[in-house]
Amino acid sequence: MYWEKEIETMDRGSLEKLQMARLGETLARVKNSVHYGKRFAELGLDTAKIRTLADLERLPLTTKEDLREQWPYGFLTCSRDEIIRMHSSSGTTGRATVIFHTANDIAAWTNLLARSMFMAGMRRSDVFQNMMTYGLFTGGLGFHYGAEEIGALVIPAGAGNSKRQIQLMQDFETTAIHIIPSYALHLSTVFTETGIDPRRDTKLKIAFLGAEPHSENMRRKIEDFYGFKGFNSYGLSEMNGPGMAFECPEQRGMHVWEDNYIIEVIDPLTLRPVPEGEEGELIATTLLREGMPILRYRTKDLTRIIPGPCPCGRTHRRIERITGRTDDMMILKGVNIFPIQIEKRLMEIPGVGVNFLIILERENYNDQMTVKVEVQRDFFGGDLQQLEILRRRIVEELKSDILITPRVDLVEQDSLPKSEGKAVRVIDNRKD
Ligand code: AMP
Ligand code: ZN
Question: CATH number, domain at 165?
Fold first, then answer.
């Protein structure tokens, strides 16, 4: 069963032709943006020469830094009057990278989510509980609109408040949920505590699991506990958000909707394509976006293209679940955090020394961050009360920046391990 059979099962030749036609339109549009106008001029790029997918390499890569540099409107290809929605990456604060959508962009994105959820088996008879943060983050409104497009009954539950989530599931006989995998594990402990068995006491049958990396084992563990089928959902705000790549009922890799995106996998060092099937950094180009098209975006996510056709009949290629990042971005409870954000904040606080260490753990299926912070030797002279005031201040300042409450341990100057060369700032001890 397909949402749009013709597009989902289009033969590769026609699909690639469609991609090239849409790329041509996209290139004609992006010239109007401050960023690409400038980039194309610098490169002396004649976009008329981009005729096949093999020519793609001539186009410039786009990075998060480019988006920051052109913040906020330097990527727009239309007037601001045509923009109806803004989103941003989760967890970024201050000058977050922002993405703008026209009405057509929202319609196209909504269609991709409807297509994806339909593929996983959701229908208008389903009750869909969206347990994601609503707001700037794309996982809330993105899925919400897609589920409404299918015609399901949508419960915009938002994130957190576990007991209430369970209550909603029972009262309204929720059949499908969208949830962050680590939160699904945490919620399982609340189910157990309250003596409610999701297999027996709820009607759950489908879960969309996304926003953070998780292993096959973790998926199986979640599925076993709840008795539903869990579908991996991948996306990033720069490429709309969810609805970019999604698992089909085969649960073997995620189909990337290639009528909306061109994907490449490159070696992050040489920036050249890797042979098909090998792991590298995923690069993506939007094909239907009007307001803010992006060319060859460096996702920094590591994956590979799964060679060969999928038994489900869809011709859009599949990527493997994300295995890591090429940068030091951490994802905690679905929130993206860079060590540099923590470093910046810490260095502004008087009394803090130069060295710190971030330790990530999973306790009771909850992501926990501990920051060990060296204190300047002569700053407090061992005054315990002053140290406690400092500790609390660090917790508060970090919390306001990274949106997660860290544990903070103050330690003596020079007590943290020093590394030769690039400092090791993060130790990730999280296991499934
Ligand atoms: P954001 O822009 O806030 O939506 O964050 C996007 C990032 O979240 C991606 O670049 C990935 O690193 C991560 N991410 C999203 N979905 C998944 C997924 N299903 N598996 C692994 N990582 C994911
Ligand atoms: Zn498939």
Answer: 3.40.50.12780
- Is the CB of 299 within 6 Å of ligand 1? yes
> Do 354 and 391 belong together in one domain?
yes
Query: Which burial class, exposed, middle or buried, applies to 423 when counting CB atoms under 10 A from its CB (0-12, 13-18, 19+)?
Result: middle
Q: Are residues 293 and 363 located together in one domain of the fold?
A: no
pLDDT digits (tens, 9 = 90+) for 314-323: 999 999 999 9
Q: Could you tell me if 108 and 67 lie in one domain?
A: yes
**Residue 249 confidence (pLDDT) above 80:** yes
Report which ligand 1 atom has the smallest distance to the Cα of 329.
12
Q: By C-alpha distance, which of 331, 345, 382, 360 is closest to 427?
A: 360
DSSP assignment, residue 78? Answer: S
Domain shared by 11 and 124, yes or no: yes
> Does the C-beta of 97 come closer than 6 Å to ligand 1?
no
* Any ligand 1 atom below 6 A from CB of 210: yes
Ligand (nearest to CA of 315): 2
CB of 336 sitting under 6 A from ligand 1: yes
Domain identity same for 145 and 216? yes
Indicate the average pLDDT of the chain.
Answer: 94
Q: What is the pLDDT of residue 365?
A: 82
Q: Does residue 352 sit in the same domain as residue 265?
A: no
Tokens of 92: 């970024």
pLDDT tens-digit series, residues 155-198: 999 999 999 999 999 999 999 999 999 899 989 999 999 999 99
Enter the tokens of residue 352. 């803090």
> CB of 303 closer than 6 A to ligand 1?
no
pLDDT more than 70, % of the chain: 97
Is residue 261 within 8 Å of residue 284, measured between CB atoms? yes
Highest mean predicted confidence (pLDDT) among 35-44, 211-220, 404-413:
35-44
Domain count, the chain: 2
Give me the amino acid identity at 357.
Answer: L
CATH label of the domain that carries residue 356: 3.30.300.30
- Residue 412's domain comprises 335-428
pLDDT higher than threshold 60 for residue 94: no
Residue type at position 272: R
Instruction: Say which DSSP state 278 is in.
Output: S
Cα–chain-centroid distance for residue 383?
43
Domain final residue, candidates 304, 327, 350: 327
What pLDDT score does 422 carry?
63
* Ligand 2 midpoint to CA 88 (Å): 29
For residue 269, the CA-to-ligand 1 centroid distance in Å is 21
Of 327, 350, 378, the residue at which a domain comes to its end is: 327
> Would the CB of 246 count as within 6 Å of ligand 1?
no
Determine if the pTM surpasses 0.90: yes
